Amino acid sequence: MNGKKGIELRSIGQPRACPEPAEGATVPTFIVGIAAIFVVCAVVISGAKAQSGSVPPTANAAGPKKAEEQFKNIQTLKGIPADQLIPAMQFITASLGVECEFCHVQGAFEKDDKKPKQTARKMMEMMFAINKDNFEGHREVTCYSCHRGSVDPVGTPLVMAEEPKPSMAEAKNSEGGEEQAPSGPGADQLIDKYLQAAGGAAAIDKITSRVMKGTITFGDRNVPIEIFSKDPDKRVSFTHTPDGDSITAFDGQEGWLGVPGHPVREMHGPDIDAASMDADLQFAAHLKAMFTETKVRGVERIGDHDTYLVVGQREGKTPLRLYFDEKSGLLVRLVRYGETPLGRLPTQIDYADYRETGGVKIPFRWTLARPSGRFTIQVSEVKQNVPVDDAKFAKPAAPSEENKGTAK
Are 124 and 58 in contact (CB under 8 A)? Predict the structure, then answer.
């Protein structure tokens, strides 16, 4: 944090100095725009000069630009879409627990002056070869498989520091209860129960707009936030920082992010997928139709709640993991993934403080966590079916030629 300038916010879970991509969260309609807290890092790299190179088996070469066409000195990740380069770098930072300067020269990302950068290239090539030679090209091994948040791969098993916690079924057995039967509620039943617990399809379909006010907390810092949603599929979030508003918007087709003093940044790929779900005011009613396949993966204890885990597969997209309260049926946790050329980056959202408003139940508090950070949002005021001007969702015009280059 910068004490001289007040509160310095950045994307949770992202390295301080890395150029950051647009973000979004795969969450229900009532969830605030995660990327509303997006703030450009202390050093914004125009046309970020990150390194990379040979195309991983899962890379999709289609797209308007390849990484080597937009960035300098790309070697190991040649052929991947340009908008996937920064997410790949973020996957490395999360896997090794480092920041950009560990491999890169600050302000000159294209340089090869640091040995860890050259080592990283060799490690990526090794990872691609392992998957190609042993797993038919499927990405089974990633940077995290060995590093687990450490620069040095873990080679020695850890000792058991405490007794393992029993699962819900084991706890029932130890108390003389019956083990959970495999023929418990099906995935469709759990999703239907969630829909009813949230107010039912009829009540949810009546919601045409929602305005929320509250605070977002990073450690001991609290910042006001406002969220405006409007059917169909429009949403914008304003995080009011001391230096101005950080904005995340989705107009039903395109998404963008803006921070004071910097150019607008467009969303791409999984961020658009996430933003479209954020903006869906009838998310609970549309949930079942999103999946090509759903399975119940057992039960898990989350805080004071016993939950059923449902994994939903989506065609051409990453799966969702949904945790439904065993008693109430409400959604307690959602885990979504951002696809990168090196692996998937998870985002976990825990929901709490459900309250009824306008005939539907929504959480007034939720906590979002990523590999290297977390924050909590607490809503204090909700208004539904109120007028929301479409102009709020409009993307600002690009800066004129005279003003270009002012944001460094």
Answer: no
Question: Quick one: tokens of 17?
Answer: 């100095």
How far is 365 from 354, CA to CA, in rounded Å? 8
Beta strands 305-314 and 317-325, pairing class: antiparallel
pTM of the predicted protein model? 0.77
Tell me what pLDDT residue 261 has: 84
Tens of pLDDT, residues 219-267: 888 999 999 999 999 999 999 988 899 999 999 999 999 988 888 888 8
Residue 183 backbone dihedrals phi, psi, to 5 degrees:
-90, 50
The count of C-alpha atoms lying within 13 angstroms of the C-alpha of 22, restricted to the half-sphere facing its C-beta, is 25
Q: What is the DSSP string of 326-354?
A: TTT--EEEEEEEEE-SS-EEEEEEEEEEE
pLDDT at 71 over 80: yes
Please, what sign has the CA dihedral across residues 156, 157, 162, 168? Answer: positive
98, pLDDT greater than 70: yes
pLDDT digits (tens, 9 = 90+) for 161-192: 677 665 555 444 434 444 444 457 999 999 99
Q: Which among 393, 26, 30, 18 is positioned nearest to 238, based on CA atoms?
A: 393
Phi, psi of 274 (to 5 degrees): -65, -45
pLDDT band at 61 (very low <50, low <70, confident <90, very high): very low
The angle at the Cα of 129, spanning 123 to 132, to the nearest 5 degrees, equals: 145
Instruction: State the Rg of the chain over Cα.
Output: 22
Is residue 256 within 8 Å of residue 249, measured between CB atoms?
yes
Give, for 227, the enclosing helix (H) or strand (E). Answer: strand 221-230
Q: Are 66 and 77 in contact (CB under 8 A)?
A: no
Residue 2 φ/ψ, nearest 5 degrees = -100, 105
Q: Are 225 and 366 in contact (CB under 8 A)?
A: no
Q: Are strands 344-357 and 331-339 parallel, antiparallel or unpaired?
A: antiparallel
**Secondary element (H or E) of residue 170:** helix 168-174
Question: What is the three-class DSSP state of 318?
Answer: strand
- HSE-CB of 216 using CA atoms within 13 angstroms: 29
247-250 contact pairs (CB < 8 A, 24+): 247/36, 248/23, 248/24, 248/33, 248/34, 248/35, 248/36, 248/38, 248/275, 249/33, 249/392, 249/393, 249/394, 249/395, 250/24, 250/33, 250/275, 250/276, 250/278, 250/279, 250/393
* Distance (Å, whole) CA 142 – CA 95: 9
